[in-house]
Amino acid sequence: NSAFSTANSSLSIAQSAFAKANTGGGGGVTESLNIAFNNNNATSYKIVAINTSAETILASTLDLTQANKIVGILDSNNQTVTLGTLTNPSWTWTSDESLYLGSNGDIVITPTINGALFSLKIGYALSATKIFVKIGTPVVL
Questions:
Q1: N or C: which end of the chain has fewer CB within 10 A?
Q2: What confidence tens digit (pLDDT) does each residue in 112-122 have?
Q3: By the 8 A CB rule, do 81 and 34 touch?
Q4: What is the pLDDT of residues 102-112, one digit of tens each?
Q5: What is the pTM of this model?
Q6: What SS3 state is found at 75?
Q7: What share of the chain is helix, strand, coil (3-state, %, to 5)?
Q8: CA 32 to CA 40: how far, in whole Å?
Q9: Cα–Cα distance between 26 and 127 in angstroms, integer?
């Protein structure tokens, strides 16, 4: 009976977590998957990698050790958007424009920058101020 009770409780917790995730925490459907990490040196709307202390740091295609450690883009709430939409009123993208990682966490529109050791598509523009984050597979140059 004890094992059955524990399994039943675990199932209930899992179902509750699933329901919460599907409703964005109970407040309606969300447009992105965000994860909160401790932040080392990143700022809002910059692409971040994860370091060995599980902290977000500014990502760069100039650092080959980061090629498989890019986790997303930091939003204004210090959360990392790993998949989905992100809006920044100061952006001026062109719709459907592909977006890539540059250096110092910068989002750029060219697949490579001068001195890059890898290329990484991080998503595309939905409008001038809204992007869809979808971290691709890094290509070592």
A1: N
A2: 999 999 999 99
A3: yes
A4: 999 999 999 99
A5: 0.76
A6: coil
A7: 15, 35, 50
A8: 22
A9: 28
